[in-house]
Amino acid sequence: MRVLVVEDEKKTASFVRKALQAEGFAVDVCDNGEAALAAAAGTPFDGMVLDIMLPGRDGLSVLRQLRERGNKTPVLLLSARGAVNERVEGLNAGADDYLPKPFVIAELVARVRALGRRGGEVKPTVLRLADLTLDTISHRAQRGGKTFEMTAREFRLLEFLMRSPGRICGRMSIIEKVWDYDFDPGTNLVDVYIRRLREKIDDGFEPKLLHTVRGIGYVLKETP
Fold first, then answer.
1. 3.30.930.10, 3.40.50.2300, 3.30.160.620, 3.40.50.720: which CATH number matches 2-118?
2. What's the pLDDT tens digit per position in 6-45?
3. Topology classification of domain 126-220
4. pLDDT tens for residues 63-79?
5. 112 Cβ neighbours under 8 A, 6+ residues apart
């Protein structure tokens, strides 16, 4: 599961992120409503942990906007206020679950896992671009009948690119989504993995699918 955590309290956000990652979730974090809407528009999340009390646009406003856009990602609301009327308002706005603060982290993890079972927007398990296929269940990548041996990180990078075909993915976006870093480590880490990936999916094949957009990032598409 890929989960978006929207929480402006840095300690709480870090605590939740680490707990979910320890249970095998891929986690993105943002600290305000506008960033949450932008992230949800660009990435198909399996679940969202959304704090109601956010700077600027609050959590309920974010939730209403998501539902108006047709985004069905399951949402767990968090709030330091446990008033019944607030829970009702949140559920009426489209929330799937509600957890008051302070909470026990084991319960939050269990509730997030339950969100995944309910399902939001169903993501395909087999991704295709030209003659390249990626099976996210069996972790098998093939092109032209050839199966590639891939490390877990290479697979995650290819999956991220294939879920955004035709969209330029910046270096920082790749670092955040594939390595779960919220900072640039200042190395050529991304370049090394892109080169490895290109050697596997493009060398000896036409058309080339993995393209570099100088100064911006990388894009997976059939045309140059």
1. 3.40.50.2300
2. 999 999 999 999 999 888 888 999 999 999 999 998 888 8
3. Arc Repressor Mutant, subunit A (1.10.10)
4. 999 999 888 899 999 98
5. 1, 3, 20, 25, 47, 49, 76
